[in-house]
Amino acid sequence: MNRAIAHTHTVILRLVRRIHSSVCAGFGMDPLPSQRMTGVILICALLILSVPVQAQESSTYDRVMETGKIRCGGVFWPPYLYKDPNTGEVKGFSKDIWEAIIALADLEMELVEVQPGYTVSDLKAKKVDAICGDGPWIISKIKYIDFTRPYSYQALHVYGRADETRYPTRADLNTESAHFVGIDGDSTYDFVNRFFPKAKIRNLIDMTDPTLLLSEVAAGKADLVVMDPLAADPYIKNNPGEIKRLLGGEPVAIYPAMFSVAKGENELFRVLDSATEAALNLGIIDDILNKVDPDQTFIFRVAKPYEVKE
After folding, report:
1. What is the CA radius of gyration of the chain?
2. Residues 244 and 165 reside in one and the same domain
3. In which domain, by residue range, is 17 found?
4. Which of 131, 29, 17, 14 is nearest to 70 (CA)?
5. Does some domain include residue 308?
6. What is the pLDDT of residues 207-232, one digit of tens each?
């Protein structure tokens, strides 16, 4: 910025000299002596220096390059991301993926906990540099942020009580008798609200514990919930006979997992997108996911964009 100010001052001083020469020539006057002209220039310079210059706000990319760290906003959702109740340590295979991707750019990850429904405002307020493990959980937010390429996909299933028989097909879910539970700002709420508008939905706010959604259904406070099986299955195994998948086990939607940045942060977007591509091509993502889901039952892998001929 100092160079820009100095350049501006030089241009203005040259302009003062030219204006002075032109005015004197127009009126048939002799130019001011060099010493007096120097005084005029000094006065102009002081006036210029007294005018505040508004500094241009640096981009998120500039801040990341300066600090060497990406403030990564993450929603805590076991087992993807959670705190160990005994040690308080933050764990989860999603955290491992984010760190591995960001490390490929020789950067460090600084994890910041964010709540569902606030990711767009957190990006705009620069509370975080990027949302990690993001996706179109609220589909309409694609207007406000940009998503990188996915590093994996996950299914959403409909769950109900073990004796539930009223909803054999997807079309049956869009009825006034269907009573869902979901979390505000998350796909558990947005998907139902968008695609099953006739159904009722109990809205839980600022919660990130998937077991609470299932316990609401088990207790009869709601009949149905839409969520991912990796989060649901531990509850089902620990509470046999309470909850089951509906629709013959078929998913109702597939959602990608990726990074997101605020609109206009093109440089940071390209860094994360390119690093994600590299992590996929180098087998880093597969190595991490194979430890969690070796049979690819819960998490779907990204299809390779090439074909290896034998």
Report:
1. 29
2. yes
3. 2-50
4. 131
5. no
6. 778 899 999 999 999 999 999 999 99
